[in-house]
């Protein structure tokens, strides 16, 4: 909750200063590898019942395009069930050369 409060307290100033830029997946206006990290929290995979596989694939590929590292969480859909899209998305980004296993 403290992180949420800190963000909300900074949001208006951050908008004015250009630190927050309204964008929408699956298409982002940023250039290739503009960011070190792209983070998607509580959207992809969580709403698997509402957002289809193509949207997930296109969104993850786009985040991989604009950032060197991509983190997405949770990998579960609502109700804490396994999202059926995790494996197909991983296979797709492996084929595209984005996935690097540690």
Q: What does the model show?
A:
This protein has 102 residues and is an alpha+beta fold. The protein has a domain at 26-95. The chain has helices at 2-17, 53-66, 86-95; strands at 35-41, 67-73, 76-77, 81-82. β1 (35-41), α2 (53-66) and β2 (67-73) form a beta-alpha-beta unit.
SSE-based structural type: alpha+beta
Shape: globular
State the helicity in percent bands: 25-40%
Order of strands across the biggest sheet?
A: 1-2
Strand content: 15-25%
Number of separate helices: 3
Order of helices and strands: HEHEEEH
Uncertain stretches of 5 or more adjacent residues = none
Total count of strands: 4
Outline the secondary-structure elements.
Layout: H1 2-17, E1 35-41, H2 53-66, E2 67-73, E3 76-77, E4 81-82, H3 86-95
Parallel strand pairs: 1-2
Antiparallel strand pairs: 3-4
Helix pairs in contact: 2-3
Key terms for this structure?
alpha+beta, two-stranded antiparallel ribbon, 4 strands, 39% helix
Nutshell version of this structure?
This protein has 102 residues and is of the alpha+beta class. It has helices spanning 2-17, 53-66, 86-95, and strands at residues 35-41, 67-73, 76-77, 81-82. Helix 2 packs across helix 3 (86-95).
């Amino acid at each position: 909750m403290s992180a949420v409060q800190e963000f909300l307290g900074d949001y208006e100033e951050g908008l004015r200063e250009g630190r927050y830029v309204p964008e929408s997946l699956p298409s982002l206006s940023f250039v290739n590898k503009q960011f070190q990290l792209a983070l998607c929290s509580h959207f992809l995979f969580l709403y698997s019942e509402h957002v289809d596989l193509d949207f997930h694939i296109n969104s993850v590929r786009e985040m991989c395009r604009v950032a060197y590292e991509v983190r997405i969480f949770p990998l579960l859909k609502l109700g804490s069930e396994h999202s059926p899209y995790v494996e197909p998305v991983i296979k797709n980004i492996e084929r595209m050369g984005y996935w690097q296993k540690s």
